[in-house]
Structure formats: structure tokens, C-alpha cells
Amino acid sequence: MDRLIRKMRPYLLAWHHRSRSSTATFLSDFLISSLFLSCNNLCPESSVRRFSYKDIKRATDGFHRIIYSNSHGAAYRARFQDGEVALVKEVKDLNQGKDDFLKEVQLLGQLHHRHLLALKGFSTGHKRLLVYDNMEMGSLKEHLNDPLKTPLNWKTRLQIAIGVAAALEYLLLFSNPPIYHVSVSASNVMLDENYIAKISDVGLINSVGANVTVPHSSNSEDCMDNTYGDLTFQLGVLILELITGQSSENGTTDLIQWIQESRYRSSIQKMIDPDLGTNYDSRELKNLLAVARLCIKSGDKPKFSIPQIFRYLQKKAENTCN
Questions:
Q1: Less Cβ crowding at N or C end of the chain, within 10 Å?
Q2: CA–CA separation, 173 vs 307, rounded Å?
Q3: What is the pLDDT confidence band of residue 45, given thresholds at 50, 70 and 90?
Q4: How many CB atoms lie within 10 A of CB 101?
Q5: Where do runs of H (alpha helix) occur along the chain?
Q6: Band of the pLDDT at 215, cuts 50, 70, 90?
Q7: DSSP per-residue codes, 58-92
Q8: What is the model's pTM?
């Protein structure tokens, strides 16, 4: 399935660009469903501007308004003098040249999707910084771990999982070039005022700091194979966190080990997030747990592709509303 999707990707991209100004010609039911669900989430274009390092430092209170921090850098909440509020991310790739950074900024500025955090600007001062739209509700991790935050209901959690899967499908199928660095975790899934999920950690630089280039031939296919496996695993972990309300990042609870156990079903009730109470469909929850388990156990060879997972979650949400 993944190889078929990769072969069809150039045609999908061509259709996507043509459909902006004309009605698409006939496509198979499979392609129509995938394209329709992804294109429905596209956002209007926006410009990317340069911010001064001095203004960003002042807006973040000397980089002390930290939202989260990981191996890729820290994220800060910024409030500029004109009242504008934004999320600022530090880029810590020391092997990346300035030209590569500027090229990446240009490419990231061309990504437009409802479930991707929109890039507003950048800075190349003492720190390399990316400026994004402000997310009123903060990160998903905050809502799952902070008792002062409003608990997320089952419908919202399901919509978050669907939104993240939709964004991943867009990055893999409709981004040109396809994105090879995406990190999906409760820390970098941000929520807007309507609890719409937006992935905030996206880039074209791989883990060893290679230059920003458009991959070709076998290297591209190997990269895509690894990317599909990694993202499927990460999505499975995120679904697991949405169900349990627990984090896999701090190491206090080994969620991954639990879901891999053969008798995990007997302990499901103990693992469900208490904030959900009894306000969920037990059959739907167990099916979602089964998907998370397959995503996590499959490793480098996922049994489901991202588009398949997306459509499955979308169907479950439709059944919930009916």
C-alpha cells in the first residue's frame, strides 16, 4: 500500500495543484477519499517575515517564557510590543549552514494545512528562531498532565488523533518535497482556542544535520520507508496517551511495554484516563487501543499506512456523530 501511494504521489500533487482552479477529472474512489480528506484541511497562504533577535528576546522575557524543551530545541511564548502573541521555537541544529536554514524557512512557509502550526517568521541573530502562530490552549501534554487545565472529553481526543493523522498524510503525500523530519508527541502537538490540534515540530533536516535537498531514487524510497515506520509508531504512542492520559516521555509509566503485553486487555480499565469518567464508547476505545498496539508493535514495517489510519479514525468519528 505504501509503495503504491509513493508511486501515485506525483499524480496526487499534480491533481492537487490543478484542482485549485478547476474541477478534478475522474479518479478512483480510493484516491478521491484520500484527496478530499486532506485538501479539506488546507489553509490559505500566509507570508513569512524576518523578526529581529532583539524584539524576540524582549517578547520572550529574555527566553524565560518556556513552553517546552526537547533535544531539537526549546519553545517560548512571546508577546511583542504591538500586542501580538506568538510561539517561538529555537533551532539547535549546529551542522546546518545559514543558507540551508533560510531554504528550510522558505519551504516550511509553503506548508499550509489546518493541522500544522503556521510559520509566521524567523530570526537569524544569536539564535536561529522560528516564529509561529500563538496557540491559546498550549500543548496537548499540558492538558493531559496539568490538573488545572480543562480535561479533554472523548470526542476532542478523537478529533486530535484524526487531526494529527491528517497532517501526517499531507506531509507525506502533498508536500513537495516530502517532509523527512516530523516529531509527533504530546509536547509538540499544540491546541488552538477551539482545541484544534496542530503539529509544531516539522522540518526538512534529518537527524544527522544533512543539507536541505530534494531526495532522489533509492535514497528517497529508503528514507520514506523509515519515515513511515517512525511516524506510525509515534502516532500509535500519541493515541495511547490520549486514551490513558499518561505520558511516555517522562519514563514514569511504561505505556509501550504495557500495550505490547499479551494480556493488556485485562488491565484496560485501570489504564483509562480518570478524566474521561464513563463518557466514552467502550467498543470504540478498545478498537482505538488495538490500532495503537499495532502501530507500536509493527516497528519499521507498519501494517497500516498513515492514510489508512487516517480514514479509519475519520470513519470512527463519523459513527460517533451519527
A1: C
A2: 9
A3: very low
A4: 18
A5: 2-18, 29-39, 53-59, 98-108, 140-145, 154-173, 217-244, 255-260, 268-271, 282-297, 306-321
A6: very low
A7: HHTTTTT-EEEEETTEEEEEEE-TTS-EEEEEEE-
A8: 0.78
Please give the Cα distance from 289 to 269 (Å, whole number). 12
Beta bridge partners of 123: 129
Phi, psi of 51 (to 5 degrees): -105, 150
Question: Which H or E run contains 124?
Answer: strand 119-124
Contact predicate 304/291, CB 8 Å:
yes
Q: From residue 45, give the alpha-carbon distance in Å to each of 1, 77, 119, 139, 206.
A: 31, 23, 10, 24, 26
Q: How far is CA 25 from CA 31, 99, 173, 285, in A?
A: 12, 40, 19, 38
Computed over its alpha carbons, how large is the radius of gyration of the chain? 20
Residue 243's nearest CA partner among 275, 196, 195, 200 is: 275
Report the amino acid identity of residue 286: K
Tell me which DSSP letter residue 279 carries.
Answer: -
Could you give the 3-state DSSP secondary structure of residue 43? coil
Which three three-digit cell numbers place residue 229? 515506520
Cα distance between residue 228 and residue 172, in whole Å: 9
Query: Using H for helix, E for strand and C for coil, what is the string for 193-240?
Result: CCCCEEECCEECCCCCCCCCCCCCHHHHHHHHHHHHHHHHHHHHHHHH
Would you state the pLDDT for residue 153?
Answer: 94
